[in-house]
């Protein structure tokens, strides 16, 4: 069933959009934080039908197998390597795949960062103009300036709306994204201490409480409660604060990602010594919480 949706945009006007309910898959191409491990990769999640990519860690190389659109919109949370190193794999991922437009969204300064530091000597030998020539595609870099901004994207007749929120992180902020896509609402948040007592986190939670019910929250929870101090120091989440956040926001389901390599049947914290997250969070929240698995496909 299609849905008419009214939503305020950043200028305070109301946009009315027909959001088609299209069955879509969410593919978890990278589920680890910090380091890859054998067949598991660092942060990258994709919604192929819409060309949406969330973060570009080592899992980004698997995007190639799932491309279904002529445009890729890559939403970066922040610029730590486990979330962006895969952005250097564009030639391998996109060569002869028919992608004509690549858009990268991220923090202020994103264009200079990628054009002058990532795709430049000594980091990488092929610059962005050469990528465009080889791939017959254009690249665009878009800073998300505002604390909360919203925009509408169109892809081969399919439209979706995305809002971005800047949350605390020692690197200068981590962007969380809230999508209205295919009739569903999906939010992605990683590498921040998701503490509802923080002003920005509370504002994010309030925004998620408004409007359409949140179908899926994809969230990082990389540390055990006993490592709270380190979690806060490095800008990560631990079960106690995540449970509080979930109780506020009430998503239909939550998937934990940015895991330790040994997280399989159970969650494991950053040091691999504590079994955490999954059961602790599920018990605290009382609704469906699961762990992301490498190359897991979630149908929504
Ligand atoms: Zn990370």
Description:
The protein is an alpha/beta fold. It has a single domain (21-292), classed as Ribonuclease Z/Hydroxyacylglutathione hydrolase-like (Metallo-beta-lactamase, Chain A, 4-Layer Sandwich), CATH 3.60.15.10. The chain is 21% helix and 31% strand. The protein is built from eight helices and 18 strands. The chain has helices at 81-84, 90-94, 110-118, 128-135, 199-209, 228-234, 239-249, 278-285, and strands spanning 3-8, 14-19, 25-30, 44-47, 52-54, 71-75, 101-106, 138-143, 148-155, 158-167, 174-181, 184-189, 216-220, 253-257, 267-268, 275-276, 289-291, 297-299. The strands form four sheets. A seven-stranded mixed sheet has the order 8-7-6-5-4-3-18, covered by helices on one side. A hairpin with a 4-residue loop joins strand 4 and strand 5. Helix 7 runs parallel beside helix 8 (278-285). The radius of gyration is 18 Å and the shape is globular. The two termini are 14 Å apart. The model is unreliable at 1-18 (pLDDT under 50). The structure holds zinc ion (ZN). The site of zinc ion has 6 residues, from helix 1.
Chart the SSEs and their pairings.
Elements: E1 3-8, E2 14-19, E3 25-30, E4 44-47, E5 52-54, E6 71-75, H1 81-84, H2 90-94, E7 101-106, H3 110-118, H4 128-135, E8 138-143, E9 148-155, E10 158-167, E11 174-181, E12 184-189, H5 199-209, E13 216-220, H6 228-234, H7 239-249, E14 253-257, E15 267-268, E16 275-276, H8 278-285, E17 289-291, E18 297-299
Parallel strand pairs: 5-6, 6-7, 7-8, 12-13, 13-14, 14-17
Antiparallel strand pairs: 1-2, 3-4, 3-18, 4-5, 9-10, 10-11, 11-12, 15-16
Helix pairs in contact: 7-8
The structure holds zinc ion.
